[in-house]
Design goal:
single chain, two-stranded antiparallel ribbon, alpha+beta, globular, 14 helices, Ubiquitin-like (UB roll)
Length: about 425
């Protein structure tokens, strides 16, 4: 079959509708949880708002995972049934599970346990630092650390809302979620800027950069390998091939494979006059013309590696390295303005060892040494408002946002949220 015939067949053959799936929804305060059955993110928003008595416009509503990751239409279809999602109204602040744990400890300790001068002094001074004590009481049994599969270490997978069957695949996805979160926050900051709202030329430049960020991140598989021990320096390619769901390139849940997972009906764009670029490898799933259960058509647009004038590049396998060793142990890299962790071996963690350490690992951060919101994005916006942005600037912006050139993994104690000046 010719390429043209194959493309025509894909465009004309009916595709199965999204199946009806059940999810759980809660508000930002986690005061109650309600079940919602839906086929799409829009249907989820509509039904969730009705059940929670929310009257805001659906375009103002955001949906998040419990770890604080924003959910868009594309990512929604990769979620497992019965996943708990958070509905956010305009002006509300999302707290991740780790944030809630810290805030709960702070409130309980200070408001309930401050009975005496010594107790009050202990609980009100450097409380965040006290969280580090939790690391001392973790289960240090290493007997199952090296195990990968669910059946070999079932307690490690306890309560995880995922059908991923290996530790490596789960950690790979969690890192992708963190990197995806940086993308969403960057786009949100760009679109809320004066340049986006008031300068048409600047907006066009920003749109091109956003398109490039999305496409390059897909090419880089959202850097999920940072948390994936099968990519450690001590492991070769053979170890990766032995991990369930890993095909030598990425896992089944990787964004580059979403087009094979998401069922959708693609229609011809009226403006294309039948001329379509059928390079499936570079289709942005969010921009496909799809028809869901509500029969609402959306615009079709095809992206290729040269469509936005910024070249998409591939990284060699030797460049794809984990931040942990072959057992899965991570070391804190210290505060942003020094080259080491002052706490040494006290700031180590292996989320592959136990479920408790996996939970505690959520308090570790990928910290931007050059800050995203205070420095990187404002500098880019300034350039966009003045002139076209050359490749060198855009590539540097991408590296500083998403790669270990500017990201370092740090313990909560070493995460400085103040200005990095």
């Amino acid at each position: 079959m010719s390429i043209l015939a194959h493309c025509f067949a894909r465009l004309t053959q009916p595709q199965p509708k999204h199946e009806l799936r059940g999810f759980k929804v809660t508000d930002v305060n986690r005061t109650r949880k309600i079940g919602v059955a839906c086929r799409s993110l829009q249907e989820f928003k509509r039904k969730a708002c009705a059940k929670l008595n929310i009257t805001n416009d659906l375009t103002e509503i955001n949906i998040y995972l419990l770890d604080g990751s924003l959910v868009d239409d594309e990512y929604f279809h990769t979620l497992d049934a019965q996943t708990t999602l958070i509905l956010q109204k305009p002006g509300e602040t999302i707290l991740s599970d780790a944030d809630l744990l810290y805030e709960t400890l702070r409130r309980v300790n200070i408001d309930y346990l401050t009975v005496g001068d010594q107790a009050a002094k202990f609980l009100t001074e450097n409380l965040k630092r006290k969280v580090a004590v939790l690391n001392v009481v973790l289960n240090r049994d290493d007997s199952k650390t090296i195990f990968s599969k669910r059946e070999d270490h079932p307690e490690w997978f306890m309560g995880l809302e995922t059908n991923i069957t290996t530790k490596e695949a789960y950690m790979h996805r969690r890192c992708q979620d963190r990197i995806r979160g940086y993308l969403y926050k960057t786009i949100e900051q760009i679109k809320s800027s004066d340049g986006w709202k008031n300068n048409n030329q600047a907006q066009l430049r920003m749109e091109r950069i956003i398109d490039y960020l999305k496409m390059q991140l897909k090419e880089d598989h959202y850097f999920g390998y940072y948390f994936d021990r099968s990519y450690s320096n001590e492991c070769g390619n053979n170890s990766r091939d032995n991990v369930d769901g890993f095909d030598g390139n990425c896992y089944d849940h990787c964004p580059c494979k979403l087009r094979n997972i998401i069922g959708m009906k693609v229609e011809m764009n009226e403006e294309s006059n039948g001329n379509l670029n059928c390079d499936n490898d570079e289709i942005d799933a969010k921009r496909l013309l799809i028809r869901d259960d509500s029969s609402t058509s959306k615009r079709l647009a095809m992206d290729d590696k040269e469509s936005n004038n910024y070249k998409i590049s591939s990284r060699m396998r030797s460049e794809q390295k984990a931040l942990c060793d072959f057992k899965g142990e991570f070391k804190c890299e210290g505060v942003w303005n020094i080259n080491f962790c002052r706490y040494g071996d006290k700031h180590r963690i292996n989320p592959y060892r136990s479920h408790e350490e996996l939970v505690l690992f959520s308090t570790w951060n990928l910290d931007h040494k050059i800050e995203r919101s205070r420095t990187l994005v404002p500098e880019l916006l300034k350039v966009c408002e003045e002139d076209d942005v050359n490749e060198k600037i855009v590539f540097g912006f991408y590296d500083n946002l998403f790669t270990v050139k500017n990201l370092q993994l740090v313990h909560i104690v070493c995460h400085d949220k103040g200005s990095h000046k």
